[in-house]
Amino acid sequence: MQDCIFCKIVRREIPAEIVYEDEGVMVFKDINPVAPVHLLVIPKKHIPTFFDLQEEDVSVLGRVQLAAARVAAKMNLEKGFRLVSNCREDAGQLVFHLHYHLLGGRPFGWPPG
Ligand code: AMP
Ligand code: ZN
Fold first, then answer.
1. Cα separations in angstroms, 75 against 3, 68, 72, 85
2. How far apart are CA 6 and CA 42, in angstroms?
3. What is the mean pLDDT of each successive set of 10 residues along the chain, which is 113 residues long?
4. Ligand 1 centroid distance, CA of 29 (Å)
5. Are 95 and 2 in contact (CB under 8 A)?
6. Rg (CA), the chain
7. Residue 7: which residues within 8 A CB-CB, separation 6 or more?
8. DSSP of the chain, one letter per residue?
9. CA nearest to 63, candidates 44, 39, 86
10. H and E: helices and strands count for the chain
11. Catalytic entry in 38, 97, 99, 101
12. pLDDT score at 15
């Protein structure tokens, strides 16, 4: 998508600290971290929200989660991490390109706010 900020990162039109990339997935540092480790794990394909998922997207989402697990292991998050995705306004979604926040390096409360 032309104006999507995460698509621009995928196309390298704007900079990001990319920590992992494969054919369908990109992982980069969140610009406004809320934990010692705060990464964004995205499919390269522009999918605005979970409501827009198609059958053909199932495999790339599996790849997204596998990448998250591998990056978490590489970043020594054996004690645990949180993988969360905000969907639409009630969850506070700001960027409408589906993404997971990979958060680690400190304990997290439950339920979330
Ligand atoms: P949300 O859509 O609420 O799940 O959050 C979007 C996240 O994207 C926020 O945590 C922002 O800090 C992050 N973000 C926005 N723009 C950038 C950017 N250019 N590079 C890295 N992270 C970004
Ligand atoms: Zn996009």
1. 31, 10, 5, 20
2. 8
3. 95 98 98 98 98 97 98 97 98 98 98 91
4. 9
5. no
6. 14
7. 1, 46, 97
8. -TT-HHHHHHTTSS---EEEE-SSEEEEE-SS-SSSEEEEEEESS---SGGG--GGGHHHHHHHHHHHHHHHHHTT-TT-EEEE---HHHHT--S-S--EEEEESS---SS--
9. 44
10. 3, 5
11. 99
12. 98
Q: Left (φ > 0), alpha (ψ -120 to 50) or beta: where does 21 sit? A: beta
Question: Which pTM value belongs to this model?
Answer: 0.98
Active site residue 97: no
Q: Is 31 in the pocket of ligand 1 (CB under 6 A)?
A: yes
Give the fold, CATH level 3, of 5-104.
HIT family, subunit A (3.30.428)
Regarding the beta carbon of 86 and ligand 1, being less than 6 Å apart is answered yes
Torsion of CA 108, 50, 76, 16, to 10 degrees: -110
Structural contact between residues 77 and 59, judged by C-beta atoms closer than 8 angstroms: no
